[in-house]
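FAQ: What does the model actually see?

It sees only this:
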Amino acid sequence: MKTRIENQKMNVNGLFFVLVAVLMFASSGTFAQDYDSTEALFSPGTKVTEIWTPEIKINSIQGDLGTLIGVYGGALINRSFLIGIAGGVNLGHPSVNYGYFGGICQFIYEPANLVHYSGQLVLAYGSTKDYENPKTGLFDNFWNISGVHFFMMEPGVNLEVNLSSRFTLVAGVSYRYVTGLNEDNGEVSITHVTNREMSGLNFNIGMKIGKKTKVR
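And it is asked to produce this:
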């Protein structure tokens, strides 16, 4: 009788372990199926491209036209979404000297088309400072912009033309909104530039230069 009971216990235990193994196998198969069907930003086949765009911006501050030379770039995901850094410094404005550095995000609509569009947003930290001497040349006081600080938000839209698989011509318009500039600071005692005067429309033209870096 004892042997029979022990055999029954062994059979029950064996059946229990078999059921546990089956459930674990089924669960692992379900999880694997869910994992394979999960959509992710960096899924197999995601193309990440390093891209940089030198650009020139034309704007008006205190009634005078000026030019700013800048660059933005970073990681371009599947040719459609760019996240990276952006910066620029005054090149040709006759009285107001300024620059900025920050981040950029950009969405490109149908990038494979010859002509397509993109939208972007730049968030940056900037600085402006009066010229120590009147500007007589294009590169006078270049980079000498450390003065009164401000925050800048600049949304924009672009028209893009693919010149090749690596080069894209970009032209667009953006609106720079400046806040936080201390208008009474002595660094701008000559120009007395204000937040409102630093804000305004920008017209830009640039060249996107891309390089394939990896496929995840």
